[in-house]
Amino acid sequence: MSERRKQDRRTGRRAILPGGIWTTAMAGLVGLAFAIAGLLYWSTNTADSLSLARQERLVSAILAQSVERVPHDQESVTVWDDSLIQLRKSPLDLDWLDANLGIWLHTYYGHDAAYVLDPKDRPLYAMSDGKRGKPTDFMRIRASAMPLVAELRTRLRSGAADDLPPNILTPGAADIIVADGHPAIVSVKPHVSDTGRIVQEPGAEFFHIGVRRLDGSYLAAVRNTYSIDGARFSWGDDTGAGERSHALRSRDGKLIGYFIWKPFAPGSAVFARLAPVLLAAFLVIALLVIVLLFRVTAGTRKLYESRAAAQHLAFHDPLTGLPNRSLFDDRLDHALAIYRETAEHRVALLCLDLDRFKRVNDTLGHPAGDELIREFSRRLGAIIRVTDTAARLGGDEFAIIQTEVSSFEETELLCRRIVEAASQPFMLAGTQVFVGVSIGVALAGKDGLDAAELTRKADIALYESKAHGRGRHKFFAPSMDEPIRAREAAERDLRAAIEAGDQLSVAYQPQYSAITGEIVGAEALVRWQHPERGQMPPAAFIPIAEETGLIEPLGEWVMAEACKAAKDWPIQTISINVSPVQLRNPHFGYRAIGIISDAGIDPARVELEITETALIDSATQFAVNLRLLRAFGIRIALDDFGTGYSSFSHLREFEVDRVKIDRTFVDKISVDAGGSALIRAIIDLARSTGLQTTAEGVETDEQKSFLQDIGCNELQGFFMAYPMPASEIGKLLEGKSSPGRDDAAESPKRTAVG
């Protein structure tokens, strides 16, 4: 391009820019400025209005929740056997009442006063502002509180208090009233037994009266917890500039006073900080630097976010956002290091495991299980302090590091709150689900200073908690370690016994035809003669074998011994118990077929017994093995029928040949009551579906006669014969001996392979 043409273009551009384009651009900028200013003004008013409405709802909700919270706090001490026992003592243990019914409520829940009335409404105990008072102090609030006391007495005597909401344990009476010259939430609750073992006459209970004043520490708590600025109480509506009020009324609508606060106006606060010059400067600077900084800012932000996300994922659980095992281990080491140095900041380690979590996954699916984990994590976060650490270690396993523990009771209280939180229902996939949590606790110093040792002992305590019924907590005790070590010793001995082969044997319990009385089958039961402990009951070693995997070689050995022994016996079936652990092994079917083939016994004479609960719980995992076994001609029996789902549709689905009626139902046969309707129904349904039936645990002639009369196919029990060695049952089948007694069979069979 020539220099002349370049000059023309530059001249033309200068001529055009000052004209319509600049005018249009400036007009657009001015219009944009006015639009932004108008939008800012509108958004300011809107934000202030929305914030005010939200705060009014928040204040109303806070007051309503406070009226509900005081009775809820009281139930932590009024639904308690110990409180009834102490209140019935004479003289009263005032120190105990302080620690549990008075000062404790003030210290932990912030109650300003507490009183206890006897069944005749006479004051027994009083606390005010965290100090024990005289019972006569109750007279200060008697006139205000007695209507609530009388109301509750009447409800309890009439039985009208039986219908309670799900989250309320006991009836009560609460209201906002004037007590001792203060506006206060006053709640009356009865002291009742938490176990039901202590009987009380309705209407003659001890009453606990809790008082939470609305013009003292309550206001400070509201200000700090909910960021309600300027919260105060006034007998009259004397709101000042920028303040709002909420009327406090009793249940009957009587005006008590006003809750007054200064609403936060976010829109005005933002608008006040913005000035036209700042806005203009922002626009100018934005226009100048936006192009230059856009890529740099975007790139930096992405890099920072990716680094932050990577760092967060490295130390946090992606499902819940809680610290993961790595961060948990680091914080535990750090807390223990501080404790070792100072011996002041006590540390408690809590291991948690959700109860019935697998059932949620199996019935509602893994998304529901994930939501359960997330919700439980949120509840944990609401309970622990900021100085504590809650972590998810994997699956449904959690752990908490409680630091700065001042007393054993503090950890005890935390455990109780967690158990209570987990016992509340969870809404999952539109279904209300109840689970629970088990907790094991180990204390630094008392139980060790090493993180690994402390974790091990907390795990042992957790196992004890689950073993004692779940939904509870246990502190580690040295006695808990003894069963673990005994279990390890039993595992070593069992492993050695399986390898040696000279301590194990198989006993056989005959099964009789209910019609002819002949022996038609036998059940193989494993026996272990320990060289030092003597005869070991199956219940003592079968669970260990299942947990350690030893059940597979043990079960296969029993199967081989039983098939070889029964090959030439003149019986129809040899029954062999199979563990769920064996059936979950995809190679079990082939191994069983190989064992039966090597023994030379007809597969149709082999009957494998599977417990009902195991079959239903692991049907998918068992399916391949069961199809393979049945294709080979092996029969399948459902053991302990009636103790699980007891669904005949499942029996047809899994092609079961026989059901074995559990001994617990046979034990309940009552000749005077006409036998057992349940067993009769089971046998009728089995007959209609073409299934054979065997009744276990027949102990009396009456039981035998009833089962014969209603058409049970086979009978098995101590009344006919005890389990016996192979040589004895061989003689019995030849008619050369009579049924004997096997000492190991004194307890009913409850194991997988005997």
Distance between the termini: 103 Å
DSSP helix fraction: 40-55%
Count of alpha/pi helices? 25
Average per-residue pLDDT, rounded, comes to 85
- Going by CATH, the architecture of the largest domain would be Alpha-Beta Barrel
Instruction: Assign the CATH superfamily of the largest domain.
Output: EAL domain
Largest sheet properties: 8 strands, mixed, barrel
What is the third-level CATH name, the topology of the largest domain? Answer: TIM Barrel
Query: Briefly, what CATH class of the largest domain?
Result: Alpha Beta
Strand content: 15-25%
How many structural domains can be distinguished in the coordinates? 4
What strand order characterises the main sheet?
Answer: 17-18-20-21-22-23-24-25
Count the strands?
A: 25
Whole-angstrom Rg: 38 Å
Estimate the global geometry from the Cα principal axes: globular
Task: Look at the helices and sheets and give the structural class.
Answer: alpha/beta
Poorly predicted regions are 1-18, 743-752
Folded structure, characterized:
With 754 residues, the chain is of the alpha/beta class. 50% of the residues lie in helices and 19% in strands. The chain folds into 4 domains: 62-241 and 247-261, PAS domain (Beta-Lactamase, 2-Layer Sandwich), CATH 3.30.450.20; 275-315; 325-476, Alpha-Beta Plaits (2-Layer Sandwich), CATH 3.30.70; 501-745, TIM Barrel (Alpha-Beta Barrel). It contains 25 helices and 25 strands. A hairpin with a 2-residue loop joins strand 4 (173-179) and strand 5 (182-190). The longest helix has 76 residues, at 3-78. This is EAL domain-containing protein. Residues 345-478 form the GGDEF domain.
